[in-house]
Amino acid sequence: MKDIPVESLKVVGPINLKDQATFIDLECSEKKKDKVLNKYREELSDHQDLMYAHNKYSVLICLQGMDTAGKDSLIREVFKEFNPRGVVVHSFKTPSDRELEHDYLWRHYIALPERGKYGVFNRTHYENVLVTRVHPEYILEENIPGINVLEDITPDFWEKRIDQINNFEKHISQNGTVVLKFFLHLGKKEQAKRLLRRLDKEKHNWKFSPADLKERGYWDQYQEYYEDAINRTSKPYAPWYIIPADNKETARVLVAKTILEEVKRYKDIAYPELDEDIKKNIPLYQAELKAEE
After folding, report:
1. Residue 178 contacts residue 263 (beta carbons within 8 Å)
2. Which tens digits make up the pLDDT trace of 11-58?
3. Distance between CA 60 and CA 113 in Å, rounded?
4. What residues contact 276, with CB distance under 8 A and at least 6 apart?
5. Which of 19, 20, 18, 252 is nearest to 9 (CA)?
6. Per residue in 206-238, pLDDT tens?
7. Which residue, 89, 191, 252, 264, is the most exposed by fewest CB within 10 angstroms?
8. Checking DSSP bridges between strand 58-65 and strand 87-91, what pairing results, if any?
9. How many Cβ atoms are within 10 Å of 58's Cβ, its own excluded?
10. pTM score, whole prediction
11. Domains of the chain from N-terminus onward
12. CA–CA distance, 180 with 262 (Å, rounded to integer)
C-alpha cells in the first residue's frame, strides 16, 4: 500500500480547494485497505481504553463534507471496534426551537466528550459559517441583538463568528480536548454518481431528497466558504485535514491513520500507578479470592 504521510493531509498554510485532490490511489486492493483499516481501528480502540484509564484527555473528531461525502459510513467503519462507552456520535441537524434559544455554539458545547472518551460531530459548529453563509436568512432565526434584516449580516459578522469558533476550539483544547477536523473532499462528478445510486437502488431511495439537488446548485458557494473557513481556522491546536473522498475505503483508511498518529503524539497518556499499599497487598487479595474457590 502506498504510504500517505499524515502531514501531507494537514492544512498548515493557505490552500485552494480546487488544487486539492478528491481522489488518491493507495495502489492496493480493497481487501488490503480493509485489512489495514482493521489494524488501525483495533489500535485506536486499545488507545481509547488507555486514555479512559488516564482520564485527562478527550478527543473531538469533526467531520464536514458535501452531501454523500461518506460521513456516516466512515463513522461506522472507523469506530466499530470501540467499546460503546468510549465514543459518542452527534449528528447536528437544523437547530431545534430549544437550541435557538441559546447561542449557536451552545448545543455543540454540551455535546463535547467527557475525559477519556471520543466525541464525533457528524456535521459540526462549522455549519454556522457554511450553510448560514449560503442561506443567511437562517441567521434571522437566531434572534441575535442588532440582526433584524439580511442587510445587518455584514462581512464583519462572519469575521466575528470565525473568531468565536477559533476561541471555542482553543479553549477546549487548552482544557484537555484533542480537536481533529476532517474535510471529506468530494468531487462534483462523484457526488452526482452517488445521488444517482440513491435513486437507482430502491433500498437507498429513502436517503434521497429533492433538497439534495437544490443544495448541489450552490456547489461553488459551498466550496468558497469551506475554503475560507478551513484557511482561517486550521490551527496547531485544532488542525484541519483534507481527505480525498471520491473513494470511501481510501478516506476511511486515511482518517483512521491520521487519528491514530495524532493521539499517539501525547506521550503523557499512561495507565495510572496503583497505590503503593494496594500494590503491596496484591498477593493477599489474590489469596483471599482463591480461598473462596
Report:
1. yes
2. 999 999 999 999 999 999 999 999 999 999 999 999 999 999 999 999
3. 7
4. none
5. 20
6. 777 888 889 999 999 999 999 999 999 999 999
7. 264
8. unpaired
9. 21
10. 0.94
11. 6-291 (3.40.50.300)
12. 8
Where residue 268 falls (left for φ over 0; alpha for ψ -120 to 50; beta otherwise) is: alpha
Please state, in angstroms and rounded to a whole number, the distance separating the CA atoms of residues 88 and 120: 6
